[in-house]
Amino acid sequence: MALSAHLWHSRRSADEYFRCNLNKLCGLYSFQMSNFFKYLRPGFTALLILFALSANAQEPQRFRTYFLDFQPISVGDTATKDLVMDGFMGSGLFAVQKPLEAPFTLITQQQDLVIRNGQLRIRVRFTPVAKGTFLSDLILVGQQGVQPALDTLRIRTTGTSYYVARNVLIDFGRVYTGLMRVDSIRIRPEPQNEGMWFIEPPGKPDAPFYLLSIGSNVTLDDDSAFAVFRFAPTKEGIFKDTLRAIRRHQGVSLDTITVYLLGRGVDLDTTLRLSFGSVLTGDSVARRRVFIQPPTHIYEIEYKPDDRSPFKVFKEGIDQMDSVAAIISFTPQKEQVYKDSVVLRRVKVGIAGVFDRIVISLEGSGAVMQKEARVTFSGVRINDVVRDTLELLLDPKPISTPFLYKLDKIQSGYITGSIVVPTGASKGNEIGVSFTAAPKVFENASERFVLYRMLSGGSVIDSTVINVATTMSARPVQLSLKVEADTMRMRIGESATLRIILNVIGEADKPLELVSISGRIAYNPTVVVPQLTNNVKRVIDGDKVYIEYTAPLESIVVNEDGNVVAEIDMMAVIGDTDRTKIQLDDWSVVSSDATYEVQNLSGGMVLITNPWRYSNGNSRFVNSLQGALKLDISPNPIVSSSTMRVDNVESGVGELTIVDVNGSLIADLTQQLRTGTREFQLNKGAGTGVVLNPGSYYARLLVRGTDGTSINSVVRLLIVQ
Prior knowledge:
The structure is a single chain. By secondary structure, the protein is mainly beta. The chain is about 10% helix and about 55% strand. The strands form 12 sheets. Strands 32, 34, 36, 37, 38, 40, 41 and 43 form an 8-stranded mixed β-sheet that branches. Strands 1, 2, 4, 7 and 8 form a 5-stranded mixed β-sheet that branches. It is elongated, with a radius of gyration of 68 Å.
């Protein structure tokens, strides 16, 4: 409207606008002047008239238009707006020539239409009582003292109003049964004779919603009023209702407010789970739960656990009886899960019946120390002193009760124990127990202790069995070996058993459970010949021959001197001397828990008691005369075949035989030798000549004198691989 009024004003020509307003002003001045002239003398009156006519002819009337536009408002509402006009001087006064028409009202009083500080201020109220667009002009005429001279001000005032139709949701939310909540909506006031408020449909709202008041009866300020509703549920549930507040005037609906009511009636927390978790037996923990206790309502304990239960229940009021607290303690005595409940009922003073009940489900478990613990000392030797500390952790940690601890030993032994943490009553959850082992004998120990947890009065709550064990290790020992035989004096062709004797040097803490033994024996192979077995092998190392012995020892336990750990059978043969050393070399013994390198080795000597002798009685081992017998075997050892050559034997004489290590005859080549054969073919496994299986053999060449006595001989060892 402000824009349209402005356009209307701009379309008019300036001359027409000026002429129209000038005529009006002239009429106004004529009327005023006529009244003024009645009181003047005739001559002076004529002079004034002449002056006025002269002024009108020289200075046309001034006319200024201002625009005052209101924002759209709803019917029944009120808006106020100020207009400031400036550019004036002095302190002139304006008078209302044409007042505003309804629904506009000039609030500024006549005596306040005065120019101040070059400005003229007015205040206008817009109060529509019907829907529409409104326009009204306010005409102000300048009085004395207005500078510059200005006769008329026009304030063009416009405004628009509309009827209200709106929806309002009042959500009371959750309201406990037996209580209430109040809420309201803002409505417009009821202008005098401008309608009344009605509720449709009649009788609304339904319980538990209540309309307390509506309209001017609940006016909070000059231009506001409220409809007040209450929600007071008496049972659980979701409640809804709808109504309309309508303001009517002369059968016409001016305002319509649709009110949607929503609320939920709930009992107080009816079910609550209270878990104490895991608590050490003998310890105690308390939980406190606070509940709203509405005015005039009280809670009563309807059910609680009996005296045998670990749960105890107390009740106390809080904050002038507007709340109630249930205090529940839990003191378990056994390692088990406990369950119980507490029931509180809410009643209203002076009213029979129970509004609701609070059921508190109780749950907790009793915990104890760990049942068993173990400490092990490994590798302990006699006269050692070893210590270890066992750390036990209580889970959970004690909450309110300090505990004492005591350590008892079940049986006697060389292990001792003591509590190091705590030293007295404590709420800590760390327990340290120190153990010491000091063995004086070689004996594994397995001893038992009991750690008790007690109350300050000495009552035992629970305990932990602590098993402490030691595994002993023997102190190091030294071993020695020596050689013995059933006879160390042998005749050619005789057999004897060579025995290896193991001795312990010093004191052994425990018998040695031998697993195996191995080593080598150096000897003269032309004097004695060993019987080869799985455990006995012959080894040629350069120009030396060794017996290599390796054997398991499954049933030999050594705890004293004189233990036979190896036996080797051997036979005496003719050789290049009448004796041989038996020398032990690189022997080791393996037990169930260690390997021993034998440091002390004692050898022996084998003596041949019947060597061949010359006619003068001297011992004879090889022919020292010219033309000594020759017996060569090449190659030796024999891999596939070899050749044995004989020389320096007279035709028709001599004996040539091959025997095994036991002296058994394998081949007698004497006849072939006497008929002139000097080379013999030796084959491994198969072929012509002499066939030999893998093993050790002896070839002996013997020449006898005319009297039948042996005058010369030679023995050669041959090996078939």
